[in-house]
Specification:
With 485 residues, the protein is of the alpha+beta class. It contains twelve helices and 14 strands. It catalyses: ATP + protein L-histidine = ADP + protein N-phospho-L-histidine.
């Protein structure tokens, strides 16, 4: 979309953009939240399963170690590691380690020292650093309840988990603990699951973006048509019905606007009919009065003072006749017959017509050279009428010795600027300048620019008023390009 200077909403503030971004953010947030939740939930459940496995392996180790022999194992020293009892106990733990796939199994006393360990680097009586950092967990096991430490990372960067089970004698006394350590390999699976979810979510996000684009386009396209229609309505074009149908809220809005348009069009017809009727009622007696004034002016017996008064009456009659003609032109339906015409040829014709009038007012009428070949799609009669009116207004706005300048250029559309170095017009007047019967001149009906505006709209053109570089007013006529001939 174009910027606000063209009367359109900047794309960053458009409803389509906001709806698209909102749906995209919602889809992305849902995908990200779902992937994080699933990963955490899967990790929690897998960690619980790992804890249960560690406790089960620990329970099996307790059975293999024979709890009644454990107090004797806790009295071993490094010098006694060759004894058969110790070797049998360690061998049983190694076999269990291989069968279950855990990383380490050890028997520790209640002070946190390992006595039988599958880790070959751990000697009898080695202090377990893990228990120092998780003393509360160890105390819980010492009280007779299996427990486990949270996931931790060892010095090699491996994520692990250790579970503990108590070793009870026949009397029920807890004399030691068995620890089972395993790698948290499930985290890799959880991360893979998250990656897959994000992949599926990304595909879903793309689909959501496509859906959001179609939804936003379907919602805003009727609104864009309404904007174009409303702009034409605001410029005075009441002939086109509202281009929106449907049973939704936009359709109801379109129906309401169409009812408003029909009502305004009816009022406009009544106004034009009234204006035409008044003009005809004035025109008939005006013709008779003018005839008698002409006859009176031709009377040779008139004194000079009387002749001056008669000439003043005749001038006022001519001015009144022009106003009546404007009334009739405003009331008369205009049916354009646009065709491809040479803009330069029309401008030269109009300047030829308006040149004597400019000379009589000692005003310089300048034509700044533009593209030599500049076809426009416009009704020839309407274009001449529009340019004559705009140039005529410029001639009336400047003082003797002033300048009226005509320039044109061809871009996406053809633009003609009629500028003057007069006093210009205020912002308040600029807002009402195209209203029928509004005028700041001492004479005139205030219908010239409304007629020009209507002719421009009928030819799919646009008339704008602004400030000229010359210091006065700039009237810009934007027209559709024609076919080169």
């Amino acid at each position: 979309m174009t910027d606000a200077g063209d009367g359109r909403t900047p794309w960053i503030f458009a409803i389509r953009t906001r709806l698209f971004v909102a749906l995209a953010l919602l889809a992305a947030l849902l995908t990200l939240s779902l992937s994080i939740w699933i990963e955490r939930e899967a990790s929690r459940q897998l960690e619980d399963e790992l804890t249960a496995k560690l406790h089960a392996v620990g329970g099996a180790a307790v059975v293999l170690l024979k709890p009644d022999l454990v107090p004797g194992l806790l009295r071993f020293t490094p010098a006694l590691k060759g004894f058969g009892t110790y070797q049998d106990a360690r061998r049983n733990l190694l076999v269990l380690q291989q069968l279950t796939g855990v990383r380490r199994i050890f028997l520790a006393d209640l002070d946190g020292h390992s006595f039988v360990d599958t880790d070959s680097t751990a000697t009898i009586g080695t202090a377990l650093p893990t228990l120092r950092f998780h003393r509360a967990v160890f105390d819980k096991v010492a009280a007779g309840e299996p427990s486990a430490v949270p996931l931790f990372t060892d010095v090699d960067g491996q994520i692990k988990k250790t579970g503990y089970v108590p070793v009870r004698t026949r009397s029920g006394e807890v004399v030691a603990v068995v620890g089972v350590e395993a790698d948290a390999v499930f985290l890799g699976a959880a991360r893979l699951l998250r990656a897959r979810i994000l992949g599926v979510g990304a595909a879903g996000l793309i689909l959501a973006l496509i859906l959001a684009a179609f939804l936003a386009r379907g919602l805003t396209r009727p609104l864009e048509r309404l904007v174009v229609w409303a702009r034409r309505l605001g410029s005075g074009d009441l002939s086109h019905p509202v281009p929106v149908e449907g049973r939704d809220e936009i359709g109801v809005l379109g129906l309401t606007l169409e009812q408003m348009r029909v009502h305004l069009e009816s009022q406009d017809r009544e106004l034009r009919a009234m204006v035409a009727g008044v003009a005809h009622e004035i025109r008939n007696p005006l013709a008779g009065i003018k005839l008698y004034a002409d006859l009176l002016a031709s009377d040779a017996a008139l004194a000079e003072s009387q002749r001056t008064r008669v000439e003043k009456v005749r001038r006022e009659m001519d001015q009144l006749a022009r106003i009546v003609d404007e009334f009739l032109l405003f009331a008369r339906p205009a049916h354009p017959s646009p065709e491809s015409i040479d803009l330069l040829h029309v401008i030269e014709e109009v300047i030829g017509v308006m040149g004597p009038r400019a000379a009589s007012r000692a005003v310089s009428l300048e034509m700044v050279p533009g593209p030599q070949s500049c076809p426009v799609h416009f009704d020839p009669t309407h274009l001449r009428q529009v340019l004559q009116n705009l140039i005529g207004n410029g001639l009336e706005a400047v003082e003797p010795g002033g300048t009226v300048r005509i320039t044109w250029r061809s871009e996406s559309q053809v633009q003609v600027d009629v500028e003057d170095d007069g006093p210009g017009i205020s912002a308040e007047v600029r807002e009402r300048i195209f209203e029928p019967f509004f005028t700041t001149k001492p004479t005139g009906a205030g219908l010239g620019l409304p007629i020009v505006q209507r002719l421009a709209l009928l030819n799919q053109a646009r008339l704008e008023v602004g400030r000229s570089d010359l210091g006065g007013t700039r009237m810009r006529l934007g027209m559709p390009r024609g076919r080169a001939t």
